[in-house]
Amino acid sequence: MLEKLGRNLPCWCGSGRKYKVCHMEFDERIAEHKRMGDVVPTHKMIKNPAQIAKIKESAKVNVAVLDAVAAAICEDMPTSEIDRIVSETTKAYGAVPAPLHYQGYPYSVCTSVNSQVCHGFPSDKVILKSGDIVNVDCSTILDGYYSDSSRMFMIGDVSDAARKLVEVTKECMELGLEQVKPWGYLGDMGQAVNDHAKENGFSVVRDIGGHGVGIEFHEDPFVSYVTKRGTDMLLVPGMMFTIEPMVNMGSALYDVDPHNGWEISTRDGKLSAQWEIQVLVTEDGHEVISW
Ligand SMILES: [Zn+2]
Fold first, then answer.
1. How far is the CA of 46 from the centre of ligand 1 (A)?
2. Which CATH class is domain 39-290?
3. Is 97 in contact with 64 (CB distance < 8 Å)?
4. 153 C-alpha vs ligand 1 centroid, how far in Å?
5. Of 106, 147, 227, 289, which has the fewest CB atoms closer than 10 Å, so is most exposed?
């Protein structure tokens, strides 16, 4: 098979180098893992340096947009104002908010308040009040390249319990990130996230998770937080995906709004929190691209 790919032909990664001096050994190492029974990434999941550079430019805008939200968000603000800030800031950078019109999604950002797990609609009827916790999830398209991250904001005086949920969820993301390294497994990350949530008495939403990102908004692989160490997909340099655990104070069960088909809330009405970063697997570890 390797002969067929042509040792002296240009590498599939687009580097312009000969395959034998570029990704040939890399492919052989992946093939060995596959023979041992591992789930391995496809070439399509591996970004080349030129693509990574473009995605980083997109991410700079995404971070700036979330920084603009962070500077402005406050008590008595309707979440529709967050939508306006995201829309205007993104446009000022010559970029496009990725959520707008994505599969019919009607806004430029998701604002998920309290018991909303994700995909909350910004609204002039949802006024942030003291004690609320809110996730603001921004995604940007710049020059055709995608970036995606989200942050939690605590409005005014939040309860100790709500603060703990927000902080533990961030720790989950950070502990997951520590596990991301080449030739490790996605499950190393997943278990680190899940263990920390459970140790704190919280639950992790099971079948909504992270995803590959960069060339498209949502790419393979699906990123779960209920997988076990040493399982799930092999990680290799050039892969890029989000770590975005949704952590619930009560049960992990949720419902989708039957009217709009988007907004997702905890079934028990208890609080939910989420943090999201976009991560690149590098030759010696990882790099956070968007936060
Ligand atoms: Zn190559």
1. 10
2. alpha beta
3. no
4. 41
5. 106
